[in-house]
Amino acid sequence: MALSLVDKLVVAISSRALFDFEEENRVYEAGDLKAYEALQRERLNVPAKPGVAFPLIRKLLALNAAGGHRVEVVILSRSDPISGLRAFHSCREHGLAIERGVFTRGRAPFAYLKPLNASLFLSANQQDVRDALAAGFPAARVLPESAKMASKYPDEIRIAFDGDAVLFSDEAERIFQKDGLRAFVGHEIDNKHLPLADGPLKPLLEALHRLQKLADAAAPMRIRTALVTARSAPAHERAIRTLMAWNIEIDEAMFLGGLDKSAFLREFEPDFFFDDQIGHCESARVVTATGHVLSGIVNAS
Question: How far apart are CA 167 and CA 102, in angstroms?
Answer without folding.
Answer: 28
